[in-house]
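tokens incoming
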């Protein structure tokens, strides 16, 4: 998969995109990541990529000409590309969108800055606008790194364990169960004995129930979305542990 990141601050991206899973995926040829400096396509002597907004108002707006030239340059190299603008006005990023983007062969990620990007550029050249949350960042570089990381890890063969991505938090609308490792006792607290039982069916049931309990307590909005997706065996288990009525009540109050 190809990621092209367009930014006016390329140095912000260098180190994070050369570590851990992303570095290994690059070395294995599973992803290719290139960073393009939008300033290289500015035509004035000061390499200006922003200007004052028409109509007045605060801040500056990213100019369309250098950004258009930068987009065209990466499309020439790779023939196409799904163009994504990282913007507070975009649709909310979640695991469903991660899976959607992972099906693309080439993502062009535009790191927005200042008060935004000229709308004419967006209308003619941007396929998607994405926001990573209801808060404001200085620019889209951090959001671009989040997209590269989250999309890379769901690509086939990137993670060492084939089940890791499928069983992550948000692979379904449940938070992940608590995790434990050695030592067995830490500061007087032992790990749950079921995890030492060797009974994989019991362990899976325990983890499922703990996942449901955690989601009920921390993200009732998610449990409401998951309500209709429990299997017959899961419903039976939830009823046995007096959790199903809690889920149903939460769903009625929260909505699907």
């Amino acid at each position: 998969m190809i990621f092209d990141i367009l930014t006016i601050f390329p140095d912000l991206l260098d180190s994070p995109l050369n570590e851990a899973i992303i570095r290994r995926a690059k070395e294995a040829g599973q992803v290719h990541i290139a960073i393009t400096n939008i300033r290289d396509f500015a035509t004035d002597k000061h390499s200006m990529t922003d200007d004052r907004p028409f109509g007045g108002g605060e801040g500056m707006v990213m100019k369309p000409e250098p950004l258009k030239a930068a987009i065209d340059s990466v499309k020439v190299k790779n023939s196409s590309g799904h163009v994504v603008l990282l913007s507070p006005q975009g649709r909310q990023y979640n695991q469903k969108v991660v899976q959607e983007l992972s099906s693309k062969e080439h993502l062009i990620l535009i790191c927005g800055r200042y008060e935004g990007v000229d709308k004419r550029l967006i209308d003619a050249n941007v396929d998607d606008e994405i926001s990573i949350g209801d808060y404001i960042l200085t620019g889209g570089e951090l959001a671009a790194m989040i997209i590269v990381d989250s999309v890379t890890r769901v690509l086939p063969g990137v993670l060492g364990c084939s089940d890791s991505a499928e069983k992550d938090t948000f692979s379904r609308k449940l938070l992940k169960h608590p995790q434990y490792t050695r030592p067995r006792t830490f500061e007087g607290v032992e790990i749950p004995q079921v995890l030492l039982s060797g009974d994989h069916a019991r362990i899976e049931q325990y983890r499922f129930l703990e996942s449901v309990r955690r989601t009920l307590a921390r993200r009732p909005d998610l449990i409401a979305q998951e309500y209709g997706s429990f299997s017959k065996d899961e419903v039976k288990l939830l009823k046995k542990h007096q959790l199903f009525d809690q889920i149903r009540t939460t769903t009625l109050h929260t909505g699907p």
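note: The longest helix spans residues 200-218.
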